[in-house]
Amino acid sequence: RAMQESAEAQRSSEEQFHLLVEGVTDYAIYMLDPEGRITTWNAGAQRIKGYRADEIVGQNFSKFFTEEDRAAGIRLRAREAAVREGRYEAESIRVRKDGSRFWANVVLYRLRDASGNLRGFAKVTRDITERQKRTEELQEAQAQLIQSQKMEGLGQLTGGIAHDFNNLLTVTQGSTDMIDRRLRAGDQNLTPFLEAARRGT
């Protein structure tokens, strides 16, 4: 009787866990066999990735990688890291059923049995496209602010230079005007005005 109660408690616990995982829609949660084939699929995975369970179970999880990442061997490196470290996490582009791409936070957990044998992997994916978009917008705004501050600083610098340059031109212009007036009046003592013009120049 105690064994029967224990088995029922185990079954009830497994059902509750299944309901919990199945009820999560903000995260794609699914299991992989040791070769990377999908064995379970929750409602969140269907919502985020676009595949129904009957379309995707049995397929390799490499379907979700971009062509570029597959060519670069990212899937194999992720699997190897999870086997070695117990966990692999990354943020990168993933592909939905309709071919559209989205930014994803992905975590791959290694699963071992009581004897230490690799039984497969648990995969959790979260769509972070909106967060990534906000991050990129913030970075763009910061870059624009820095550019604006540079332009303001440059404006102040050139304004100061223009002011100083204008002062020098005023001295030179004033001196040449005085030389012209003195020459018309017949005054030959122009040395102080020539010196002022030279200094200004």
Helical amount among residues, as a percent range? 55-70%
Secondary structure tally: strands: 4
Q: Please, how many helices?
A: 7
Supply Rg: 37 Å
Structural class of the helix and strand makeup? alpha+beta
What is the beta-strand fraction?
Answer: 15-25%
Cα-to-Cα separation, first versus last residue:
109 Å
Pattern of helices and strands = HEHHHHEEEHH
Oligomer: single chain
Structure description:
The protein is of the alpha+beta class and 201 residues long. It contains seven helices and four strands, in the order αβααααβββαα. The protein has a four-stranded antiparallel sheet with strand order 1-4-3-2, sandwiched between helices. A hairpin with a 5-residue loop joins β3 and β4 (118-127). The mean pLDDT is 82.
Keywords:
201 residues, alpha+beta, four-stranded antiparallel beta sheet, 59% helix, 18% strand, rod-shaped
Short synopsis of the structure:
Helix content is 59%, strand content 18%. It has seven helices and four strands. It has helices at 2-23, 43-49, 53-56, 67-72, 74-85, 129-185, 191-200, and strands spanning 27-32, 87-95, 101-112, 118-127.
Set down the secondary structure blueprint.
Blueprint: H1 2-23, E1 27-32, H2 43-49, H3 53-56, H4 67-72, H5 74-85, E2 87-95, E3 101-112, E4 118-127, H6 129-185, H7 191-200
Antiparallel strand pairs: 1-4, 2-3, 3-4
